[in-house]
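Re: weekly structure request thread

Next one in the queue (295 aa):
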Amino acid sequence: MTPVTDASATPLEPVVPSRPTRLIATDLDGTLLHDDKTVSDRTIAALAAAEEAGIEVFFVTGRPARWMDVVSDHVHGHGLAICANGAAVVDLHRGRRIVEVSPLEPTVALDVVAALRGAAPGTAFAVERTGSFHHEPAYPPLRLDPTANVAPAEKLLAEDFAASVDPEGRGQPVLKLLAHHADLDPDAFLALARKAAGNLASFTRSSPTALLEISGPGVSKAGTLARCCAERGISPAEVVAFGDMPNDIEMLSWAGTSYAMANAHPDVLAATTRRTASNNDDGVAVVIERILSAQ
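Done, posted below.
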């Protein structure tokens, strides 16, 4: 078994939670997925074994629903995932249909845009809606989207634009505002943005570049996961969580048992006491296998 290390990097066996595990909450990129964005056979087997043992598995990610195809086949049972850093709950068994939304109000998003333009000139923005993605000319999209509209953020957040991109004309709620800066250090950009507009919205990041993910006030992976667990009568002490980037910290702090990946951001390593192997070494599967052997 791949060794797991604690905060002092001393090798030790994975810590088994003191209470039976009822739910596993795992981030995807940099955590469950290998760097090539695949799910290993070992991890697929571990996830299936966990659900067979009666443990629910939630994917909790910053990804939008349309990027969940890589794991759609690996959630059994309920089939739900938490996407967009908690802004959406998605049913993977029903065509990645969004069943719950915690939106960022466009007027608030416009205030954030104005604040960041002042605090960090050169910031480029993108808008993630429930059914579409749009960006400014200077924004570098992670994936080419031929259907994306390219325009200033002020137009992309306008009420008439929202209606124009919805086939039914009712508008699509904003899940996330994204802000990219070509020159700033990623952590410095996050700190600057929180200082400039942290009273307006929730700011986090999960990219190695200076790309911020901005949600409605109070929206986070932790908040939506806590609500989903409460609906199922699951306490934090019965949850095991995994993550690697700043957008995972609140979730890792909320869960009764949490693991930072060996490849995790320094802030994540500082916020957790347990470690597992890297994403490329199937660190999530390592812990799941140990939990199942002990229950």
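The first strand starts at residue 4 and ends at 5. The chain has a mean pLDDT of 89.
Next request, please.
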